[in-house]
Structure formats: C-alpha cells, structure tokens
C-alpha cells in the first residue's frame, strides 16, 4: 500500500463490490430499477464498479455532481434534491445532453420551470413520508394536483412520478421500527400512485434509504430504489442492525501522535475535519465518534467497544482506551477508525486510497 503519513480514507473494493452485488440482486428480484445514490462515494472510478452489475441510472445530490458524472459517461441521472431554480442554465445544459430528472416540491418552483425549461426533462414530485425535512405531505393532494397541472403548460416536461427519502429510518431504535416506517411510507406512496395512475399510467414510485432498502422485503408497486450509504456502510448502520461489521468497507487511517497515560488516552492526527462530528451512543452511554482497529501480531483487531474515539477537535482525535489496551499504541503507529457516518467522512476526505494502494479521485479532488 502507498505509504500513509496523514489521515487517509481507505476503501476495501472487495467489500464494496459485495455490497453492490447484494443490493443489485435485491432490486432485480423485486423487479425494481436500481438507481444508486452516488453522493456517498462521489467518485467516477467507484461509479465504474456499479457497471459490473448492469447499473446504468444513478442518483446524485446536486447539479454540480450531476455535471461531474455526466462528464464521466453517465447518461441517466436524477438529482434528488429540491430544484434550485437559480441553476436553471446548468440544468438546461444537462438536459440537452443526458436523460435528466429533477425534484419539485412546491408550486413556486414549478411555475418557474414551465417558463424556463428548454429541453426534455423528467420531474418527480418530492413527497414527505415522515422524515419532515422537505417534500409535500401525501395527504396534500390538492397541492400535488396544482403542480401536475402546471407541468402541462410546458411540453418539454414529463411527470415521472413520486419520490421519497424515508430518512427517518436512520433514527429508528430497532429493526422492527425500520420495517414499520418503511411500510408506512410504502402505503402512502402506493395511495398516491393509485390516485394518479388513471391519468398517468406510467407514473412511478421511487424510494431510497439504506436501512429499509437493505432490510425490508415488501416493495409492492415500487419502481426504483435509490440507496447510497450501503456501498460503504458504517457504525451507524451496524448500530441499527442494518449491516454486520464485515460489511463496513471503509476506514479512516490515522497516525498516533501522542499518549496521555494519566487519562488512558491516545491522541491521533484525525479530527472533526476528517471524521465529521456525527456520533452515536457507545456501550457506556457516552458519545462515540468511531471504533478502533489496530494491527497486532500481524493481524487486524477490532478493539472492544470501551476503546473508542471519545472526542474530536479540528485536527485532533482523542481515543479513550482501557488500561489493558494502552500499551498496544505507540507514537508513529497507524490506527484505523471505523466512521460513524461514512457519507460525511468520505465527503471530507476528497480522495481515497483502496486497500490495494490505488488512489481514487472524487468530484471534490
């Protein structure tokens, strides 16, 4: 492997391929389009790995990211973020060259789009099924009807269907709660599809979140799924029971720079600008920003949960370790930190290294 001398985001390609294959198979078995969300990895090189499993349609989170992946050969892209009408020139440029879908969740945006869209474009109406971040409540059918009616004024616009992100599955306290939240969202989306499919026979349901796409089995009437985090997974997903430790494909590898014997703490070069500030509750009830993997006797070893990333400042990470483990750390060692949230950690990294030593560039490189 390339010599690591500073915090480095390391990706295990084989685990990623296994995770992609599993999700692609699930989509195929349920007769759904697999439109993975590329905001997690943000990399043209990693995007090529998906093509091994016949993926030809993707999701992104910004116009900038859509431009990056379009430049790298992707021709069917959904921007899963409420349309920013200030970017209409860039949106038209993309729509002129690829099959582009955008999201609308209010009449104001729709009225601007009908005046300014110049090329064929697909539009999904963003539905809020309980995450309470953005989108139209499924009960607000009058608002939805007004938006759909508005679209008819521009022949370049095609109504694709209804799209939701069931992001509140990430806040579940059990796998049963994930199943329940998914099923509730599914019923809401199916109800909308039934209401509008008489006038729009090809209308679709698009759903996307890693917890439910990984665990759930009921996808009746769903046309596509858009998970993103699943390629890497992370501690948050393991903590929810969504994945196993062996499914987590990424580590932030950090140098040890100091030891604080009086506090049983190890200081690493790897802080909030590398790991993000996302945390989950550790086994002792305290905030944890990552789990620790060390090299011992020629093998990698995941340390017990009472050894963890306990605090972060901008560049510093503080590992709280047991007295028994303290002796296993030396200044100049490299330790692997399993991130709590791989999407944010990957975004902060800007470029990655595979376990085979290959450098992976991203949209941020």
Automatic annotation (TrEMBL):
MF terms (GO), sorted A to Z: D-serine ammonia-lyase activity
UniProt domain D-serine dehydratase-like: residue ranges: 249-356
Keywords: Lyase
GO biological process, one term: D-serine catabolic process
Highest taxon of the lineage: Bacteria
Pfam families, sorted: Ala_racemase_N (PF01168), D-ser_dehydrat (PF14031)
Family: Belongs to the DSD1 family.
Protein name: Alanine racemase
